[in-house]
């Protein structure tokens, strides 16, 4: 089935409120330092506390995590097993955005032919990268040529079928809280090294999407 999606609004940090809060804090610190009366210091801090709480509550964005704008990318939202997530993907200048929820629990996101990824919850062999490497090295007729990046959360590798052009793929694990997600390319397509690098960078932006907080 196809999922409905919206390009999320990127909310700038309210710098004015943030600066006001910082300036107020500095002023109180310096003033109380100059004031010798302990009683006066206590009164000032009690009077200022409501203002500090107000600025602290109003100064942040509407979600716990501030979305950082990346040129040429946009944020999309999805749900996997009821968990609200978001990820940065290429914008509409790179192609039409498609999101498909597969029967086995994966959500596939495609933007043209150069960006095609699959995201799903994983455990056991799915998150065992030693096992996944053994599967990659035994693939036929594709032959493993080299690893571009090989660490505890990512396998970025080059394969080639004899007499054909090389192709690149990746397999990564992203842990959010207590849940591990497998983010990988959709293997039916062949990708350039540059295309896979873009997908690898996108995978790193996968995060939990908290519900909007009420305005202060």
Could you explain how this protein is built, in words?
With 216 residues, the chain is an alpha+beta fold. The chain folds into 2 domains: 15-58; 73-208, Jelly Rolls, CATH 2.60.120. The protein contains 4 helices and 10 strands. Strands 3-4-5-9-8-7-6 form a 7-stranded antiparallel beta sheet, with helices on both faces. Helix 1 (15-34) packs antiparallel against helix 2 (38-58). The longest helix has 21 residues, at 38-58. It is globular. The two termini are 38 Å apart. The relative contact order is 0.14. The model is unreliable at 4-18 and 51-64 (pLDDT under 50).
- Give me the strand/helix succession: HHEEEEEHEEEEHE
Poorly predicted runs: 4-18, 51-64
**Termini, distance in Å?**
38 Å
Derived from helix and strand composition plus strand pairing, the structural class reads alpha+beta
CATH class call of the largest domain: Mainly Beta
* Neighbour order of strands in the largest sheet: 3-4-5-9-8-7-6
Q: Please state the overall shape, judged from the principal axes of the Cα atoms.
A: globular
Rg over CA atoms, rounded to whole Å, is 24 Å
Level of helix content? Answer: 25-40%
Q: What characterizes the major β-sheet?
A: 7 strands, antiparallel
* Fraction in beta strands: 25-35%
Give the name of the CATH architecture of the largest domain: Sandwich
Number of domains: 2
Mean pLDDT over the residues: 80
């Amino acid at each position: 089935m196809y999922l409905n999606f919206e390009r999320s609004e990127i909310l700038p940090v309210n710098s004015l409120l943030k600066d006001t809060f910082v300036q107020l804090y500095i002023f109180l610190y310096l003033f109380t330092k100059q004031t010798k009366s302990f009683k006066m210091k206590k009164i000032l801090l009690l009077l200022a506390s409501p203002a500090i709480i107000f600025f602290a509550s109003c100064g942040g964005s509407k979600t716990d995590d501030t979305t950082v704008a990346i040129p040429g990318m946009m944020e999309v939202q999805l749900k996997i097993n009821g968990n609200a997530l978001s990820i940065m993907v290429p914008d509409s200048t790179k192609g039409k955005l498609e999101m498909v929820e597969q029967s086995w629990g994966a959500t596939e996101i495609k933007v043209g032919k150069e960006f095609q990824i699959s995201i799903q919850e994983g455990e056991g062999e799915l998150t065992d990268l030693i096992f996944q490497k053994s599967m990659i090295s035994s693939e036929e007729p594709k032959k493993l040529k080299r690893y571009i990046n090989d660490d505890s959360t990512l396998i970025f590798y080059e394969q080639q079928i004899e007499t054909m052009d090389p192709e690149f793929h990746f397999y990564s694990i992203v842990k959010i809280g207590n849940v591990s997600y497998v983010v990988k390319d959709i293997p039916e397509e062949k990708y350039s090294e540059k295309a896979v690098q873009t997908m690898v960078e996108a995978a790193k932006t996968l995060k939990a999407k908290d519900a909007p907080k009420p305005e202060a």
